[in-house]
C-alpha cells in the first residue's frame, strides 16, 4: 500500500486485533496485509472477523455524513453495478434489498467531518500515487458518490474541491477500482462542472492530471464542447458564429480548456485566435442556489440527514 497503513486503522485497533485473534483465530486463506473497509462508515480493519463483527453489531451508519444533493436512477444498468459489487443481479429472483436502484452524490464538509474525509484521502492514496492532501481537510468539500439499494448507500468514489477556489472545481477525483468502466468518473466530472455553472464560475481540474485523468477529461471536454456548439449555433448570429466565451459559459469550462479542445476538433475554425478571451469568473455568483442543469436529469434533494439503524 502507498498510504500509511496504520493511519487508516481506528484507535484501539491493536487491542481489538488481539481480541479478534482470540475469538476467531483469523480467517483461513486471508491475504496478509489486506485492509477490510466498512461499506458505510469507512472504518478499516486488519482482519475480516473484526470487519464482520463491526458490520453486524456496531455500525449504525448507512450513508455518508452529509447532505444528499443529487440522485439519479440507474435506468436499466443495475446489473452492471451489481456485478461490480459481487451482488445479486437485478432480476425477479434477486432479493428486493439487493437490487441497486440509483446513484447519489453527497456533499460532506471537511471541517465538520474530519475523520471521514481524512479516511477518504488516505484510501485515495492507495490508488493515486500523486495524491498529496491527506489530513488537512478543513478547507475542502467532498462530493461522495454512492450506489444505493434498500440497505443503504455504498461508497463508489468521490471528488474534492477547495471551498474558496474559483479556478478549480476538482482537486482530487477517484472511483474505486471495482466500480471502473461504469462511466462513474465521467459522471463525477459532469457534476463538478454543473456545480461550477451553478456558482457562476468557469473552472477546471487542478493540474497536473494523471495519464488516466487526462484521458478522461479530454473525452469529457470534447463531448461537452460538441454538445455546446450544437446548442449554441441555433441562437448564434450568424448561425455558425459561436464565441469561445459562449461555449465556456454553456459548459462551465475555462477558456483555456475550451480553446485546447476546439484545437483538437479538425472541423472547427477559431477566428481571431490571438484575441484575448474575456476575463474568467467576471460575474461570479457565490450565493446562487446550487441547482444542477437538466442535462444531468437529477432529482435534487434539499436536505437529507444520515440514515441510521433503529
TrEMBL record:
Regions crossing the membrane: none
Low complexity bias (residue ranges): 288-310
An annotated GO cellular component: chromatin
Keyword Transmembrane helix in record: no
Residues of the MYST-type HAT domain: 1-276
Superkingdom per UniProt: Eukaryota
Comp. bias regions, Acidic residues: 8-21
Keyword line: Acetylation, Transferase
Recorded GO MF terms: chromatin binding; histone acetyltransferase activity; transcription coregulator activity
InterPro entries per UniProt: Acyl_CoA_acyltransferase, HAT_MYST-type, MYST_HAT, WH-like_DNA-bd_sf
A Gene Ontology BP annotation from the UniProt entry: regulation of transcription by RNA polymerase II
Enzyme Commission number, as recorded: 2.3.1.48
Location of region: Disordered: 1-28, 274-310
Active-site annotation: 206 (proton donor/acceptor)
Keyword Chloroplast: no
Gene3D superfamilies to which the protein is assigned, alphabetical: 3.40.630.30, Winged helix-like DNA-binding domain superfamily/Winged helix DNA-binding domain
Family per similarity comment: Belongs to the MYST (SAS/MOZ) family.
Name the record gives this protein: histone acetyltransferase
Native source species: Phaeomonas parva
